[in-house]
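User: phosphoethanolamine N-methyltransferase. Structure?
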Amino acid sequence: MSLSIPRQAVYYVKKVSEGRNVSNVQVVSPCEKQGQTFVTAFEPLSSNVTVHNSLEQLSTIRNSDVLIFNNALSKIVNNADLLTDFLKNATNASAIGGIVIIREDLKNVADKRQVARLTDYFDVFRTNDSDGNNTGLDLYTVDQIENSTYVEQNFLDFIFVFRKKVFAPSTDATVTFRDFLDKTQYTSTGIDAYEWIFGANFISPGGYNENLKIIKRFGDLKPGQTMLDIGVGIGGGARQVADEFGVHVHGIDLSSNMLAIALERLHEQKDSRVKYSITDALVYQFEENSFDYVFSRDCIQHIPDTEKLFSRIYKTLKPGGKVLITMYGKGYGEQSDKFKTYVAQRAYFLKNLKEIGEIAEKTGFINIETENMTPRFKEILLEERSHLEQNEEEFLSKFQARERDSLKSGWTDKLGYIEKDNHNWNFFLAQKPFPK
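Assistant: Predicted structure:
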């Protein structure tokens, strides 16, 4: 086993621990030789590493600062009851604030989108500890194992990273925002219906051609440059940028349902210029000055703190780097009650174009360009609604009437919101200045 794999785990420990003591490291690895590589990798942290070769030993562990599972779940990955038992034991084995890392290679499972189901299991699980606290695993990221991607062309080898946390008691139907996205707007069926109407590999207005037009507004993209794609969805835009311009893209999204599709297709296409993470743009700690470009298509309306997002984008861009965002925004007309309900149901946090420009300027960006693209949005909505109406028989051969009705009414409602200047489609482009 390459030492780069346990060292990737150590990298996350350093990112997430925030100076916390990591002296007690417990590793569960059925392959003892692989387990010992974690001992070597943790030597710079002066950690006391104990290696176990079976999940049966998990119940004996307590108060671990770091708990790592290395391909230890293969026998239980399809058994919901055993996974629940595992999560209870893993949570109880960790100290509050402790880090839990699960490395699992899923290339040989029958369901190539298994990562979505596992992410959901891990993310929403809660259990009471001995003190009565409602504890669970707070998601930091699900990333691909870089050694597997580049050496083996295996894009389905994952590293799940969590921190044990005490959560407030909750009776909500959706436990986390990721859970909300995957159970409402981005169900598997919903994603497939969106893709049918937007075009293969895309779930954003206008599909491939519209996305390419927008990407070209960056200017001269060069092979080997790097891009962060926030809200990458099912990955069409990331693969488009790699194919068209040779740019290396790190795509992130909080919807595990969407990224499971992107990862499955990436595994089929074997394009190592593209990688994905299931994570929150406000949580993932990107390296500073690391990207030539940051791109986001119609995603940031889901993010509550625009100022924090822009600050993080600014830090991760290289000097001279550019950010380009299209986003749903609010217009300047008096908002109807129906529009307010729509915004609340989607958990949108809408800004108008003036507010976006002011936040960008406050952050320190220069060469700021903003544009109200709502007229083009209206054209696209009319085109797509017409496409659905003219090809209704084909649509109904794949989906139910409720999906058809939902799309038609949704597009009609958006056209109504546009007419009242409630709903805008906004464009933003800016640059990080060079140091003086």
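Residues 3-169 form a domain with the Rossmann fold fold (CATH 3.40.50.150). The chain has two domains: 3-169, 178-432.
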